[in-house]
Write a structure and sequence with these properties.
The chain is of the alpha+beta class. The protein has a two-stranded antiparallel ribbon with strand order 1-2. A two-stranded antiparallel sheet has the order 3-4.
């Protein structure tokens, strides 16, 4: 049972580590919603899903 818990925690750590390599996190300037955007796409237009605000950032 202890191994299951340890493996689950390690799996979450690996997922977070992988996300840091492939995605960037931006905050919406209007509502502070966190938005995940793929890295390496250059300047992109990001639309917030919560409030619909559109802004441009470099990923």
């Amino acid at each position: 049972m202890k191994e299951k818990i340890i493996n689950a925690i390690q799996g979450l750590k690996n997922k977070i580590k992988c996300d840091k390599v492939t995605y960037r996190i931006f905050d919406c300037p209007m509502c502070s919603q966190k938005l995940r955007v793929p890295k390496g796409k250059g300047k992109i237009e990001i639309t917030c899903r919560r409030c619909g605000h559109v802004f441009i950032r470099r990923s």
